[in-house]
Write a structure and sequence with these properties.
alpha/beta; TIM Barrel; eight-stranded parallel sheet; 17 helices; 18 strands; 17% strand
Length: 495
């Protein structure tokens, strides 16, 4: 019978990329991220506690000294002993499942080797699963790295090897039926005359690219869990590491016990959307943002505070400076005290921003860029925005924001219409339309709204073309912040 993972037990975890015990301790880490080649050696990296001092030895506490007495002396004096401490930090074994072998490397559209393992290759699936299974036997948890590397290369950077062609043919057979006759599909996609989106079977190829990337990460995660259950009779946590958050990374979150992701830049306003989107995708599981090695101590304090406001954590790259690690240690010590004394709080949103992973996929990232700019504009207006990945549970805030949503699903579009017709307000930036499962564009969500503020049912829709006009739209919608903060510099308020 499967049991709950013994590590981590909470939605927050302090990680360290440093293999040196003293550096990990300087960051206030609760676990060490250990590469698999180091975890297979002996002894395993950790922070051992000092051995117990024998009574009567030099430096042993005097009898009756409660400040440093042994546990037996403390109990005899009426003082409760503390809980036994672990002798080393837990090891999270890191394994790169996207590094290609001799027969599973993918290719770009120009037939050059892409330098990444093919997500559709049977050999690649078996090799990545074997790596994940081996890592599951070495530590307290597993971190699968490179889960989205194949997808992040884009529609032209990978997906044109023989395995990808066979997967596309099988996908077309499922769509057209058994009378489908296999033929060479890739030469049609390599035709330079037409734009890629207008080439034959381009939509089917793009839809398969997203589904294969998610299935690749899901298989590796399940293989690691099954190996730990079979070999160690326990349930371990399987975390993932990706680059900047994209559609594949967000859709992989339900299959992972935590996520380590990179921030797009060191601009704090650019980090708002990834932090909140990761928390929305992971729920009560750890969400950890990776800061680059050039992070300064001031930036480490700033992003640590921002991540805390978004209910996430941060980790520094292994090459970060000692000053930045010291700044992170101070913040983690503060968080330890706060989390011991106060219960977790619930956000108070003024607006909900819909950030759909599939919409971002079909718009080639344009939806994410528009949503990020809109999130920054709402934060500058000191409103309290929250991120939703889907509207299946209805809208909970009085204002719904749809930015660059040109490829919404039919479910999200219907939920947005019900919310507005029931008396809610919607702020639409750019075109807002639906798209089917095969990527074919459909009708606008609010066909009667052209520009400006218009009433739809019992509610209102404000349509504008550029996020720069966001302050004016908020004034006309009469949206005022719950908190007003004044300062000489830029102030981000999170309630």
């Amino acid at each position: 019978m499967a049991r709950d993972p013994s590590f981590p037990r909470t939605r927050h975890i302090a990680l360290s990329f440093s293999e040196r015990p003293e550096e990990a301790k300087a960051e206030g880490a609760e676990a060490i991220l250990l590469p698999i080649h180091s975890a297979e050696g002996e002894p395993r990296a950790g922070i051992p506690l000092p051995p117990p001092v024998q009574p009567g030895a030099p430096g042993a506490p005097a009898k009756g000294d409660l400040s440093s007495a042994s546990s037996n002396d403390a109990l005899s004096a009426g003082v409760h002993s503390t809980a036994p401490q672990p002798r080393e930090l837990p090891a999270v074994v890191v394994v790169d499942v996207s590094r290609p072998g001799e027969d599973d490397a993918c290719r770009a559209i120009d037939a050059t080797v892409a330098g990444v393992r093919c997500a559709s290759s049977l050999e690649g699936r078996d090799a990545s699963g074997a790596l994940a299974a081996r890592a599951a036997t070495l530590g307290e948890a597993v971190l699968l790295s490179g889960l989205d590397r194949w997808y992040a290369l884009g529609p032209l950077g990978a997906g044109y090897c023989r395995s990808c062609e066979l997967a596309l043919e099988e996908n077309l057979r499922d769509g057209y039926g058994d009378h489908f006759e296999p033929f060479e599909v890739l030469p049609l996609l390599r035709d330079p005359v037409l734009p890629f989106a207008e080439r034959p079977f381009a939509r089917a190829k793009d839809a398969l690219r997203l589904s294969e990337a998610v299935a690749f990460g899901k298989r590796a995660s399940l293989r690691a869990r099954n190996e730990a259950r079979a070999k160690r009779s326990l349930e371990i946590a399987v975390l993932g590491r990706v680059g900047a958050l994209d559609a594949a990374a967000l859709l992989l979150c339900p299959h992972l016990d935590g996520l380590v992701f990179s921030l797009p830049s060191l601009d704090p306003y650019d980090a708002l959307l990834p932090l909140q989107a990761a928390r929305a995708a992971l729920g009560a599981r750890p969400a950890v943002a990776l800061l680059p090695r050039e992070t300064t101590p001031a930036q480490a304090r700033l992003f640590a505070a921002m991540a805390t406001a978004c209910d996430c954590d941060v980790v520094l790259d292994g090459g970060a400076s000692a000053e930045a690690r010291a700044a992170l240690l101070t913040h983690r010590m503060f968080l330890t005290v706060v989390r011991e004394r106060f219960r977790p709080s619930a956000p108070l949103p003024d607006a909900e921003l819909l950030f759909s992973p599939r919409c971002d996929h079909w718009t080639a990232g344009a939806h994410g860029k528009s949503s990020s700019a809109c999130m920054a504009g709402l934060a500058r207006a000191q409103l309290q925005p929250s991120v939703r990945l889907a509207l299946d549970g209805g809208v909970r805030a009085p204002l719904l924001v749809l930015a660059g949503a040109t490829a919404l699903s039919l479910t999200d579009a219907a939920a947005a219409r019900r919310f507005v017709e029931g008396g809610g307000d919607a702020l639409v930036i750019g075109r807002c339309a639906v798209i089917d499962e095969e990527g074919r564009p459909g009708e606008p969500v609010f066909a009667s709204v052209k520009s400006g503020l218009e009433r739809v049912g019992e509610g209102r829709v404000y349509a504008l073309e550029d996020a720069a006009l966001l302050p004016r739209a908020l004034r006309e919608l009469e949206r005022r912040p719950q908190i007003n903060v004044a300062g000489r510099g830029r102030v981000l308020a999170r309630a």
